């Protein structure tokens, strides 16, 4: 499990390093995940190597949201004042994510031939 966490943290650190050096407007964590997926797809990293740490993180995912929830509550007055623009942005972003995800799935299905099961 130590090796698994080492691999995950290594990719996170590499992504943060690349984001800092190149000044890309993408969080280092996201770049790290992209690099990890690329390494998995290329076969440089095997799923079995990171599976134990990934399972542990997913099993305890709810605990990782507690600090964010506490942070939101510290801005409760601001949220109460600005509830309408916040609500509108949540709804608009939800619809955009659904549309982009659906279109992306359609494109992927068309490219892989998965959608030909009529």
Plain-language structure description:
- The chain has helices at 2-22, 28-42, 47-59, 61-64, 66-73, 76-81, 83-112.
- By secondary structure, it is mainly alpha-helical.
- It folds into two domains: 1-64, no CATH class; 65-118.
- The longest helix has 30 residues, at 83-112.
- The chain is extended.
- The model has no long low-confidence stretch (mean pLDDT 91).
Quick rundown:
It contains seven helices and no strands. The protein is mostly helical. The N and C termini lie far apart (44 Å).
Task: Please describe the structure with a list of short key phrases separated by commas or semicolons.
118 residues, mainly alpha, 2 domains, 7 helices
Distance between the ends: 44 Å
Shape: extended
Q: Supply Rg.
A: 19 Å
Flag low-confidence runs.
Answer: none
Our estimate of the beta-strand percent is under 5%
Helicity, as a percent range: over 70%
Number of strands: 0
Task: Give the assembly state of these chains.
Answer: single chain
Average pLDDT over all residues: 91
Structural class: mainly alpha
| Largest sheet: number of strands, sense, barrel closure | none
H-E order: HHHHHHH
Overall domain count: 2
Number of helices: 7
